[in-house]
């Protein structure tokens, strides 16, 4: 990749989410949202899978989203730091419960709307293009209590109202939108992904795929609204991506790898192509699932497909049908994977596979023939500041160097990638673990897993490195 420069209009930047950064969880008229019920500690993973003891915060638990890194109050300082790095774009999400605290209020919450007006104005002032996700692991708790979240068709109507409200409000400020963050996470962490809760005896698959249908229709209606209200905007979907490699060339392993990929591609097939693929219909038949659809749903899905494919990439996965091999599973990643003997792992057990990034980008390009937007990529690590406060995160620079280089190779392969927003450019609360110790940022935030610290921001070594990458349009990776 000698001297390769990314396109001049390439959207370099970073990505955060409201629920992991904003804090101020009940300020400005905001209602409770599902992440406000996720504590740190051992119970977090069970709750994310849908087994939750209470739909109100408990006194004996620590909920990291309640303050997070206080981006709600400190965003001007953070935006200025992003601008110093040369960001062309910043991906954020809007908290549904900041706009409609109960999810079905008669009027939207003006204080919440004004907050995002102010945030977008600050970004635009610094020449940073907002990239906005409508739902990033975010359902108002009131809708979980009343309707069972996305189990209910009612949420399609309410999400369309919310979407139209924010699309109309910010039509002159935001030109890049996405509907649901990592929509396929509904199958792996259903409470985190869709606010779904279960009790003993529930047909979990039936509930999940019915909820998935509701989200897919809601996504299509949001696309329709965006195309009507902001004709010059682009609105995409978003996939938690990363290919499944077969552990061997045994056809059984190869077939299982294909099936594992399809679990995720199913959602994007519908959002991008406008119809349920044959393999999904067979899956429903084989598992006795009866997905209720209303008249006109097929037409809605067909007529309102996305403009681009957003995706996250952190690691590849490996699968096997050999019981002995399956015993050697990696830890940490939401997606189950057997250990790949050719690859290193992060301290959280996530496979590090830069070449897999290029492979995944090519597969998405070949499958959908639409522009791609890399909206998450990064390394979670336990950064330890030196005595003088500096953080020499060479391991993060190494990870990003190699991944960005492979992204450049994918572009040279002919893949149309319009932007790259690394996760997360400032330390934020980890979605999977609720920790602050698992850091991704170019900017260190003084806060620990118990919520202690000054919240002071400090540049890491990777800050100046990424600044050079952007300034050189990817030609100077320091490799």
UniProtKB/TrEMBL annotation:
SUPFAM superfamilies: (Trans)glycosidases (SSF51445). Transmembrane segments: none annotated. Keywords: Glycosidase, Hydrolase. PROSITE patterns: GLYCOSYL_HYDROL_F1_1 (PS00572), GLYCOSYL_HYDROL_F1_2 (PS00653). The active site is at 376 (nucleophile). The keyword Magnesium does not apply. It comes from the Bacteria. Signal peptide: none annotated. GO terms for molecular function: 6-phospho-beta-glucosidase activity. Its EC number is 3.2.1.86. Belongs to the glycosyl hydrolase 1 family. NCBIfam families: PRK09593.1, PRK09852.1. This is 6-phospho-beta-glucosidase. It comes from Paenibacillus hunanensis. The lineage of its organism: Bacteria, Bacillati, Bacillota, Bacilli, Bacillales.
